[in-house]
Amino acid sequence: MTAFIQLTDTHIVPEGQLAYGRSDTGAALVRAVESLRATLPQLDPVDCVVLTGDLTDHGTAEEYQRLRRILAPLPLPLLAIPGNHDSREAMRAAFADMDWIPASGPIHWHHDFGPFSLIALDTLVEGAPYGMICDRGLQFLDRTLNALGAQPVVVATHHPWILSGIAEMDRNNLRNGDRLCARLAAHPAPARVISGHLHRALSSLVDGILHQVAPAPCHAVHLDQRRQAVNSLTLEPGQATLYNWRGPLGGLVSNTINLEQHPGPWPFYPD
What is the b/e burial string over 24-58, where b = at least 16 CB atoms within 10 angstroms of the residue's CB? Predict the structure, then answer.
């Protein structure tokens, strides 16, 4: 079976610092790598890890170097797109050894898993918290969808086209997601969108397209849907998302992986 793991919003800061003065994102990613290494033998073969943006907190070379060091023990190829906390050029330099990263311009790429394809779109607007798919990104999407024919497709973005009810986050989502949805609705095979940015697990069917937002391995955005709520973080247990292809009838199945230590497993009916 074909599978990949989505990690998002790692927000790595320099050694010895805390994101927002509270979240030890480096330690959280170390735990995530250790947990995933321990979990991999129990899973169907996993092809790669897809990082859906906000890899770092400030987009510095130091933060990207630390990110790569922490991820190095994970025995899986890495694929990545930037988020609003990233720097496109610093990220390009940090992943220059990867064959999927373009030499210049937005970081769009396509990965063929066989039974389905993953199209990754760079939604970073330098200096802004919200996201946009640029004209080059939409052209890349059009070309790739045309080449794929009737193959199922997953589109990865950092910013989601989904409303969480958390006012500040919804103001800073994907501003032109309707243009993405229109293209996927016209695709002659199943399509879905996977994103990050919200640090929470959400899903919604928008214009017939399934949109899934993944939780983060570090802090979460506080679930406060009151109109005047202050945008806040909470130190909830870290999570990643596993996607398995289960054939034409099963499709692409998602599963949440808890990254913190917890009791078990125990057989339901021990001898």
Answer: bbbebbbbbbebbeebeeeeeebbbbbbbbbbbbb
Report yes or no on 63 lying in a domain: yes
Domain count, the chain: 1
CB 26 within 8 A of CB 59: no
Q: Is the pLDDT of residue 271 over 90?
A: no
C-beta separation of 18 from 50 below 8 A: no
| Domain interval for residue 194 | 3-258
Q: Is residue 139 part of a domain?
A: yes
Q: For the segment 99-154, what is each residue's pLDDT rounded down to a tens digit?
A: 999 999 999 999 999 999 999 999 999 999 999 999 999 999 999 999 999 999 99
- Give 174-189 pLDDT, tens digit per residue: 999 999 999 999 999 9
CATH number at residue 132: 3.60.21.10
Q: State pTM to two decimals.
A: 0.96
Is 201 within a domain? Answer: yes
Q: Are 64 and 71 spatial neighbours (Cβ–Cβ below 8 Å)?
A: no
Contact of 117 with 149, CB cutoff 8 Å: no
Strands 48-52 and 78-81, by their bridges, are parallel
Please indicate, yes or no, if residue 184 is contained in any of the structural domains.
yes
Q: What is the pLDDT of residues 160-216, one digit of tens each?
A: 999 999 999 999 999 999 999 999 999 999 999 999 999 999 999 998 999 999 999
- From residue 117, alpha-carbon distances to 64, 103, 122, 246 in Å are 27, 22, 17, 14
